[in-house]
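Encode chain A's predicted structure.
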Amino acid sequence: MPSKPINLKHKTCPTGKCPHWQVTISNGFRADGTRDKRKYTFIGTLREVRVLAFKKEQDLKNGIDYSDDSRRTMNDVFDRFESEYINDTFENRLSDITKAVYRRHLNKVLRPFFGNIKVKGLTIYDFELFLKHLRKQQLAPRTVKAYFIIAKMCLDHMLDWRWSNPDKLLDIIRRLNKLVRSSSQPTVRRQPVNYQDYKQISKHYKGTYLGLVLHLALYTAMRREEIMGLRWSDIEFFDLPKMNKTGVCGVIDSTHTLVYLKDDHIKELQLRDIGKTKSSKRKIAFGPLTKQLLLEYKAKQQATGNDKYKDLIAAKRSWGDCYNPISISKMINTSCNKLGLVQEVTASSGKSIMMPNISLHRLRHTSITAMSQIGMPELIKKQMIGHSIGSDVTALYTHMTINDQMPWIYKINEFLDNAINA
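Encoded structure for chain A:
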């Protein structure tokens, strides 16, 4: 038997500022023909109430009413979310890196805190306690935001599954958005690296792979995974006539990244042909000092008898014995502590901690700062560092090539050389 039409009414919230819509479904019929005397009311935007009312009406017709199950906990939500969304490889919606990050956030952070909470008993107060719990751990605001984004995705899926009262879930999601925005506190801006500190640590690692990584981070502003994903086939060295005209000794074609995946399902290094952003794939010109260091390390690498994977610069003796992006950062931190290149920083909790003065990302900031100091145009700078161009119109109609970089390579190299040797 067909159910009666949906009763849709316009309703204004108590503040009088935001108009809402209210829809009520009543006198519906189940699949077995019995009448459902209960009333279901949804309040929200026009689109929300229509979608929720339609889903509820279809469930009543098919005899489905998930909201009556009071035994479900958030662990059930996380299990279904992981099986249907994260592990769903049929549509290939997520990359291996994203899946690994989602699983780690879900199983190591969200599940221990929310796992035993019943779905019907979930409130916004639980998320406020979760935010306090994360702040005690002195986590970065973007890390806190990432945890809340995963939690919000689970709540959105609960709406589709009809596992809780839609009114209650929509209210939690709206208030959760405000909570996420308030949790994104401004972070301490990364300061450029002191050039004398860089000179000291580069001298310590002279002739090694880590010394080459530090040099490329400063002179090319490449990201850590991009530097470690470099292959010799991605580098073109120019001959003397071409070098004398522009001062450019070669071009790096940044197309790959070397990433380390680690979670309950996977633990391995992967060389991937995707970058952090769409603009990560780019060509970067370099000067004579970079060419010299690259050729010196290439000769040293060939002398070690690396026959299994000669093309990868990060390879030591075989593909199984390769430099790890995470271990590289740890080696830099250890060296900074040994050389005394640390500074005292006051954490949000009021405690004083010692932080290293040098990191690969801070060297990238230093390089970009130097580009601004020599007056490099913004479009050329974004092309070199792999950032997207501001507006869609500018990105569509502006065509930058490697030739636009070449007049500035000599200037940036001269500026950095003078600053380091001053």
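The chain has a mean pLDDT of 76.
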